[in-house]
Amino acid sequence: MAVIFAGCFLLASCAAQKVTPTTVHLESSKSDPEHDEIVSEEGVADFYPNRAAPHEIVYIGKSGGTTGLTCMNASCSQMLLQSHGSGVYPDGSFQLIKTDDPNVMMIRDVEGSKVLGYIAKNHGGEWKELPDLEQAQAFEHHGDTARTVGKVVVGVLLVGLLVAAVGAVAAADANANSTTTKCSTFGATTTCTTR
Fold first, then answer.
1. pLDDT value at residue 174
2. What gap in Å lies between CA 14 and CA 67, rounded to an integer?
3. What is the pLDDT of residue 178?
4. How far apart are CA 118 and CA 1, in angstroms?
5. pLDDT in tens, 20-41
6. Do 19 and 40 form a contact (C-beta atoms < 8 A)?
7. DSSP secondary structure string, the chain?
């Protein structure tokens, strides 16, 4: 699961594409094991052994920059990120480590001895790199209030429309069973409705 999140973050630069990416499955060759490949306007992403359960992802951008993400353990809770000229990540090697929060990952140096920062995903699906855990946890909930208010407003509008529709149906039903006539009392003429 962490690889999928990290893969989404890794491929975030491909999100604003004009042409739908093409996915192909490549059988193993002398120089490359079996894998899935996604070709887009922005570059090529290779998923080893496949896109559904990747153990390694290599992205080569059109500009020639490369980014690789490799699982360091069986559960992919610890991954090695290697980048060269990607434009998204600084050049070098880093460890990405899954925290107990599925929306927050720790970034460490390649040896794993120093924490460099965190990557967090908010509930709107946006990923961001942050310098400390407190900011990462705060970013995870960034926009929640606006989304909640939006849902409440939509709910209130729907309830209001439902009440108005029920009222209109009731009024139409009441008017369908009534008769309007002219009535006069002591020389004054008025309109009378009987049900």
1. 61
2. 13
3. 59
4. 17
5. 889 999 999 999 999 999 999 9
6. yes
7. -HHHHHHHHHTGGGSS-SS--EEEEE---SSS-SEEEEE-SSEEEEEES-SSS-SEEEEEETTS-EEEEEESSTT-SEEEEEEES-SSS-SEEEEEEE-SSTTEEEEEETTS-SEEEEEEE-TTS-EEEESSHHHHHHHHTTTHHHHHHHHHHHHHHHHHHHHHHHHHHHHHHHHHT-EEEEEEETTEEEEEEE-
Residue 151 has pLDDT above 60, yes or no: no
Structure tokens at 130: 């942050």
User: Would you state the structure tokens that stand for residue 75, as one six-digit string?
Assistant: 């559960």
At residue 17, the pLDDT reads 45
Give me the phi and psi of 116, to 5 degrees please.
-100, -20
User: Taking 50 as the threshold, does the pLDDT of residue 1 lie above it?
Assistant: no
Nearest to 110 by CA among 134, 91, 136: 91
Q: Write down the pLDDT at residue 35.
A: 94
Whole-angstrom distance, CA of residue 122 vs CA of residue 35: 31
